[in-house]
Amino acid sequence: MTSEYLDNRTASLSTQSPVPPSQARAAQIPLQTFTLPTFPPEAFSSATNLNSLILTSDIKLDEYTTLLTQPFTIPSLPPTIKALTLELFSLGYPPSFLTQLGDRLKALKSLTLYSQLLAGTTPESRDDAVTFITAQHELQELHLLDVFTPPGFWTRFAGALNPDLKFLELNYTFRHSDPEFLKSLQAGEVVRFVKGRKGLLGLTLSVSAPDVVPDDEDDREGTEVGVLVVGEGGEREALVDALVDPEMGGGLVMCDVSMFELSLEELGRVVDACGMVKVLGVSVWLEKGWEELLGKLVGRDSAVEMLEIVGVPGVELVEKMKGGEMVGLSKEWLEKLARKWKGLKSVKISILRTKMEQWVNRSDVWTKMT
Q1: Which of 291, 293, 6 is nearest to 280 (CA)?
Q2: Do 86 and 53 form a contact (C-beta atoms < 8 A)?
Q3: Within 68-199, where are the H helices?
Q4: How far apart are the first and last CA of the chain?
Q5: What is the model's pLDDT at position 359?
Q6: What is the pTM of this model?
Q7: 3-class DSSP assignment, residue 11
Q8: Rounded to whole angstroms, what are the CA distances from 176 to 2, 180, 212, 221?
Q9: Quick one: the chain helix, strand, coil %, rounded to 5?
Q10: Residue 46, CA atoms < 13 Å, CB-side half-sphere
């Protein structure tokens, strides 16, 4: 599960035909201030289908800072709302906005935050965000997509999360123009979301490649491809230690930790510990090529059905690619892996999310997708 989650949800909403308020399942509201509109009486009816609310910032940038200091009103909201999405709040929220919003929505099951400064720019805003998440005792899903925060905040936020959370996603879109991008992820604190957490079924910690727009040659973000991931360091070791804890990794069904570069040995430990995982995504250091990785996996049992590997090339592999040598998967190696991983249906590889290659197993025949 990646940032496509939000894209698919909003695309679905935009293509739906208007329906009577009493029949609506979702409400998407653009905000030009921080005052929310009043919902019609039909939305509070016992017969309402409304269960999802999307608030999208349409606030002008030159007005944003002023609005952060202005009074606002959040009226009563339908108690049937169980899913909340907040998107494009680029400078965060006024102090107490999130707390008041949470008071109106006390039984959220799913929360998606997209493209924003969740903690704002002041200590009051940071406290507000922590108070908000602390009160969400029934939260089951949390999706943090391109959400940037100051140092120290993720540690507080992670500690305040519902301990019974089932699905957690942190995804960032790589920015080639920002030399400090990886540092801005606060990778050491990201691991705090995972460490010691029990009962998690789905975990995504990933970095996505930006969309490529070939026509805009003057825009670096629109022309450069691929990603970088978090390399060697204590963050990676802490992540692996958390995943191999039976009470954490042992219960996962989906695990994408491709934000972090793993060694072949660390990958082996994760595969061994996460025995229930059906969907696995990782970034792995490759010195020579894909065969050394598959050789490490062939000797292990796994329930994985969908496998995605982001290769981080070493010097030898880089030289091979420069020389024009083909460095993809072979059908023979896939067949060897599938004999051990009997449920394996799909394998996708890339070099730092470039040079994509995908194979699909159909009726025990591996086919390369084109």
Answers
A1: 293
A2: no
A3: 97-104, 123-134, 153-160, 181-184, 187-190
A4: 23
A5: 96
A6: 0.91
A7: helix
A8: 19, 10, 12, 6
A9: 30, 25, 45
A10: 0
What are residue 172's DSSP bridge partners?
Answer: 207
Rounded (10°) CA dihedral 35, 41, 45, 50: -40
Q: Residues near 89 by Cβ (< 8 Å), separated by ≥ 6?
A: 57, 59, 116, 117
Instruction: Give 129-156 pLDDT, tens digit per residue.
Output: 999 999 999 999 999 999 999 999 999 9
- 323: pLDDT confidence band, cut at 50, 70 and 90? confident
Closest residue by Cα to residue 184 from 207, 211, 156? 207
The CA R_g of the chain, rounded to the nearest whole Å, is 22
Could you give the count of Cα atoms lying within 13 Å of 108 in the half-sphere of its Cβ?
A: 28
Token readout for 243 is: 């995943």
Domain architecture of the chain: domains with CATH: 1-11+25-165 (3.80.10), 200-370 (no CATH)
Cα–Cα distance for residue pair 293/283, rounded to 1 Å? 11
Q: Measured between alpha carbons, how far is residue 300 from residues 23, 241, 265, 347 in Å? A: 51, 19, 12, 16
CB 75 within 8 A of CB 39: yes
Q: How confident is the model at residue 49 (pLDDT cuts 50, 70, 90)?
A: confident
Cβ–Cβ < 8 Å for 252, 280? no
Beta strands in the chain (DSSP E): 26-31, 52-57, 83-87, 110-116, 141-147, 167-173, 202-208, 254-262, 279-286, 306-313, 346-351, 354-362, 365-368
C-alpha to C-alpha distance for 267 and 240, rounded to whole angstroms: 9
Q: Tokens standing for 215?
A: 């026509």
Strands 354-362 and 346-351: antiparallel
Q: How far apart are CA 291 and CA 284, in angstroms?
A: 12
Going through 4-51 in order, the beta strands assigned E by DSSP cover 26-31
Classify 122 as helix, strand or coil: coil
